[in-house]
Amino acid sequence: MRRTLPVWALLASLAGPAACSSASSAARDASSSPAYGAAPAPMAGMPPRVMQTAGESTHSGSVREESYDAEMPVAADFAKAAPPPAPGGGAQLPAARPAPTAATPQPAPTSSGAAPQAAPQAAGEVSAARAPLLVYTAEIGMAVFEVGASLAKVETLARDLGGFLARRDDRTITIRVPAARFDEALKRLADLGDILQRNVVAQDVTEEFFDLAIRIRNARAVRDRLEKLLEKAAKVEESIQLERELARVSSELERLEGRLKFLRDQIAFSTLTVSFQPRSTEPLAPSGPRLPIDWLNELGLSRLLNL
Fold it and tell me: pTM for the whole thing?
């Protein structure tokens, strides 16, 4: 293997023995100087690195002597100090998952499995279906100066309120007015004269009304079945029996429907009956002293004492 000589050795061989000794001394002085072969000082802000000793062979690739700075930061510190990557450049770390939140408590289902508001709603429908059905009637006795004129005023009152005249004679009149204006009719009648008596009745027919509706529905179903059986009857005796039963059911159905129609009319229009009697225009004679003996009073002696 060919050996390469240093530059100073070549110069010394050319210059002679004196120059060679001088170059050798200069080389020894340079090797003993601190600036020769020493690693440059690290710059400010740069982390210290592994330092190799002077005269180390660069061909073997091994380090014979190493020294580390005690203040060298660990990898975690570099990770903290490193700035975040720019958007769109490099791989992005997965976003942190939010902490799980507590589940919102839900109302427990009822034993029947229905919503809590279902029961009040059903109760409201039942109460609306069973609203009371009332029939209002009134009987009034009045004292007036002119009976004929008062009768005409009552008839006019009925027409003004959307009602009609039901019956009339010399001193009594019966009118029908809408149930919604029943109270108004009573107030206006009180202005016609002096009320001697008044009787107002509110009859609840709710139960009877719905019972009639159910019975009518059942009677119609029976009638329809009887009519179908009559169409399929093959014997005369069977046809006669079916016709007799069909006539009975039809008659009962007509009676029930008539009663239901009557109740509807009574509920829609209230009935007021007013009776008039003439009021005397003569002043009543003042009553005199009463005698202790009854037969003297019958003779009219008390009138003589008033003279």
Answer: 0.50
